[in-house]
Amino acid sequence: MSGMLPLVHGLYNGAVGFLSFYQGWLGLKIRRARRSQSSFPLAAVKRHRKIGPFLPFLAGLGFLAGLLLIALDRRRILAFPAHFFLGLALVLLLFLQKRLGARIKGPLSPLRTPHFLLGILILIAFSIQVLFGLSILL
Asked: Which of 74, 87, 95, 121 is most enclosed, with most CB atoms within 10 A?
C-alpha cells in the first residue's frame, strides 16, 4: 500500500488502542480500590464510564476505514487475513465489553470479573493487531 492513508489508519487505530489501554488502567485502578476497600477513585470511575461506551464505535470506524482502504487499494478484502480477522474480532469484543459493562450493577456484581478478563483479552488482541499492522506498513 502506498500513500498516507494507511499511515493515518494506523495512527487513528493506535490512538484507539492507546485509549483502550488508558481505559484498562482506569479499570484496574478502580478494581484495586474496590478490592482493598480503600478510598474510592470517583474521578477514575467517571472517566471509565465516560470513555468506555465510545471505544467500540471508534474501533468500528477504524475497522471500516481499513476495510475501505484495502478494498480500494488491493480490491481484495482478505489481502491481509490475520489483520482483518483480528480487527473484526476486536470490534466484536469491544461491543461485547460495552454490553457487559452496562449490565454491571452494584459493587458485588458477578459480571465484574468477566468484564476484567475480557478487557485483558482485548488489550492482548490490540497489541497483536499493532504488530500485524506494522508488518503491513513496513
From this structure: 87
